[in-house]
Structure formats: structure tokens, C-alpha cells
Design goal:
about 20% strand; 8 helices; two-stranded parallel ribbon; alpha/beta
């Protein structure tokens, strides 16, 4: 819990991957709008059109000014990658985005916890599904499934479904959650991954457990550290099968 409190208090510093996802969302879900807070790095600088390099004072000063203005500096190939991902999504599953509403935010209180909650649905359709766009390095089963679980996507899916159905589902219950997954390198492979019933059930079990813990500590305004205990052997050290390999 002490780590949670610290994470909540620290300012969020987005990575390139998270920024990339933000820009893909903006281009895909708000076409025609300019990308938010972007400055494209020039190819050359100075009167002699020298090749751009941040070793040069002029280039460093330009970047500092852009960041001070709240802009994210992107290279030309990075912007091309963002556009490539969006094109791949449109080519692979553009029909999904023909009818619906983008970026629907739901704020309220869910289940038994007296705390404010929020979710932001990427794409809301008249059908049975909610959709969410994810960028990744590897969209294969082997590459994406483990990373998705570690990132808590199963909890996100269950959380979004439950929030929507509790607050907006009267006469329009959603039954499933689908991720639109696109790789962030060429050929920007894309696929649809609908969450299974077991995946949603596990997500609901986990988010209820962790949200219950959070509500408990938040109400007490106490965020404990680890408990004292005994140092035990790791499980693999007493595994007979492992010993046979020695």
C-alpha cells in the first residue's frame, strides 16, 4: 500500500509508448483534429541547412523551448509510424468504427465502495461490444497475452463493462469487451481480440479485490508497508524435480 500512495502522489511522466498510444487514439477517434501538443523535429538547422543534431546548441535550445511549451518532440519517422498504425487499424477493422461514439467517460460510484471512480471507453457502439485500442510491440498470442495480463487489461475490460452497465446499461447492456491491438513497428499488424468469459471473470475478481484494498486504506488514511516475518527458501530451492537437473 505504501507504494500505491507514492505512485498516486508522484506526477505522471508518460513514456514514448504511452504517448504513441495517445496520438493513435487522437488520429483514429478524432479524425481531422490536429495531434495534441506535437512538435516535429526539423531535418536540418541553421542557414547552412546542417543535418539536425542535439549536440548543437541551436538544436538543444529548440528542443528546450518546445518542451517548456508543453510539446512532445517527435521525429519524422515516429509520426510516420503513428500514421501507419492508424492506417492499419482502418484497413483491418475499419467497419468497427463506422457507427458509434468515441471516448465516452463515465464517472460515478460502483458497487459497495464509497469512492469516486472513472473509466473512459475508446469506442461505444450500438452493438454488444465495448472497444479499446492498444498499441504494442508484438500482437501475437505469445507476445501480447502475457503483457496484457501483466498490465491488467483483464481488470480494465471487466471494470469498463461493469461501469457502463451500472450507469448507462438500462435497456442497452453490453456483454463483451474487445481490444483493437496494433503493433507499433512495420508492418503495423493489427487484430481484434474479444475477451473470453473467463478473462472477464478473472478481471472482475481481481479489480474487486484491489479496489476493496484501496478503499480500505484510503478510508483509514493509512498506507502500511511490508509486515515483518521469516526469510524462507524460495519454492524452486526445495523442488525435487529441479534438483534432478543438477
Amino acid at each position: 500500500p505504501a507504494h500505491v500512495k507514492l505512485a498516486l502522489e508522484e506526477p505522471f511522466e508518460p513514456t514514448w509508448q504511452s504517448k504513441c498510444g495517445t496520438y493513435v487514439h487522437a488520429l483514429m477517434l478524432e479524425p481531422g483534429s490536429p495531434l495534441p501538443g506535437i512538435a516535429m523535429q526539423p531535418d536540418v538547422y541553421g542557414e547552412d541547412n546542417k543535418k539536425w543534431t542535439y549536440a548543437a546548441k541551436e538544436c538543444k535550445a529548440w528542443r528546450t523551448a518546445q518542451e517548456a511549451a508543453g510539446n512532445t518532440v517527435l521525429k519524422r519517422d515516429e509520426i510516420d509510424a503513428i500514421r501507419g498504425m492508424v492506417s492499419s487499424i482502418i484497413n483491418r477493422c475499419g467497419d468497427v468504427f463506422k457507427d458509434g461514439c468515441p471516448e465516452v467517460t463515465i464517472i460515478g460510484k460502483v458497487l459497495a465502495w464509497d469512492i469516486d471512480t472513472k473509466c473512459r471507453i475508446d469506442w461505444l457502439t450500438p452493438g454488444r461490444n465495448l472497444y479499446d485500442i492498444k498499441t504494442c510491440r508484438d500482437a501475437s498470442d505469445r507476445g501480447f497475452f502475457r503483457d496484457a495480463y501483466a498490465a491488467g487489461y483483464h481488470m480494465q475490460a471487466a471494470w469498463y463493462l461493469d461501469n457502463y452497465n451500472v450507469h448507462c446499461g438500462a435497456g442497452d447492456l453490453k456483454e463483451s469487451f474487445t481490444f483493437v491491438v496494433v503493433e507499433n513497428t512495420p508492418p503495423y499488424a493489427c487484430r481484434l481480440l474479444e475477451c473470453s468469459a473467463d478473462y472477464i471473470a478473472k478481471g472482475r475478481e481481481d479489480y474487486e479485490k484491489w479496489l476493496g484494498c484501496y478503499a480500505q486504506y484510503a478510508a483509514r488514511k493509512a498506507w502500511p508497508e511490508y509486515e515483518d516475518g521469516f526469510l524462507e527458501l524460495p519454492r524452486w530451492a526445495t523442488n525435487d524435480e529441479w534438483r534432478m537437473l543438477l
